[in-house]
Automatic annotation (TrEMBL):
Residue ranges, annotated region (Disordered): 196-220
Domain of life: Archaea
Record field: compositional bias (Low complexity): 211-220
Chain ranges passing through the membrane: 37-62
Keyword annotations of the record: Membrane, Transmembrane, Transmembrane helix
Protein name: Uncharacterized protein
């Protein structure tokens, strides 16, 4: 893979390539497409040590149309901590993706959301302290914008640099924070270590129910967010 592959393909190129190699068409869920600047993303992959473009696989990327999501992405750009145990990938867009998923509908007809921010890391094995420094900043920004909305949880995803395909990582992990926990970040005495403790204490092992302490990324294409790694493939392929 060329080192110039766009960060939006972080965590997705190998999935797209495998789908096409099997003769299939990667599923595209419009609600799961990255809510970033408009444009076309063309997926490519290394095959047998050489560069091969997987014919005409294109995913449409567009802005959210929701100013809250866009403001969070803008606020985090260049404003994340720089922990040595979870460094941000050099030259990558930060965040590399910002998504808004409608996962349910309340009895009054109002939607229930899961906002998602993805942070590309320059390591395959980040330290948990650094991870939660990032998660605290992102969750606080998300809660500031979505405090008045019905939110199931805030997902802060991390694209790991595991070198699985031409140096572009395919592993995506996540910290999911409930609005109640995120609200505590406004207390000056509450920091990323407190956040980590509260998320870990509240994690019951269900990847679809926040809080989640360093779990696999999930797909919200079905509207319930219950699928783990396998389900995440569909969302990631679409992004």
């Amino acid at each position: 893979m060329s080192p110039n592959v766009h960060p939006l393909l972080d965590g997705s190129v190998s999935i797209v390539a495998s789908v096409v190699a099997a003769g299939g068409v990667p599923p595209v869920d419009p609600a799961a497409l990255p809510l970033t600047a408009g444009g076309l993303v063309v997926a490519g992959a290394f095959v047998g040590g050489g560069l091969m473009i997987i014919g005409g696989i294109v995913a449409l990327a567009y802005r959210s149309g929701d100013e809250r999501v866009d403001r969070v992405a803008d606020a985090l750009d260049g404003d994340l901590p720089t922990p040595t145990d979870a460094p941000v990938r050099e030259g990558a867009d930060v965040p590399s993706a910002a998504n808004l998923h409608e996962v349910a509908e309340r009895e009054d007809g109002d939607p229930v959301y899961v906002p998602v921010i993805r942070i590309p890391l320059a390591t395959a094995d980040p330290g948990r302290d650094g991870v939660y420094r990032h998660a605290a900043r992102a969750a606080a920004a998300l809660h500031d914008e979505f405090e008045d909305a019905h939110v199931r949880g805030y997902d802060v995803e991390f694209g790991l640099d595991d070198g699985s395909l031409g140096g572009v990582g395919r592993t995506v992990k996540r910290v999911a924070v409930t609005p109640e926990i995120a609200a505590r970040l406004r207390d000056r005495d509450y920091d990323h270590r407190d956040l980590r403790e509260d998320v870990a204490d509240g994690d019951d092992g269900d990847p679809g129910v926040p809080p989640v302490d360093w779990g696999d990324a999930v797909s919200y294409a079905t509207g319930d967010g219950s699928a783990a790694t396998a389900g995440a493939a569909a969302t990631t392929a679409a992004t």
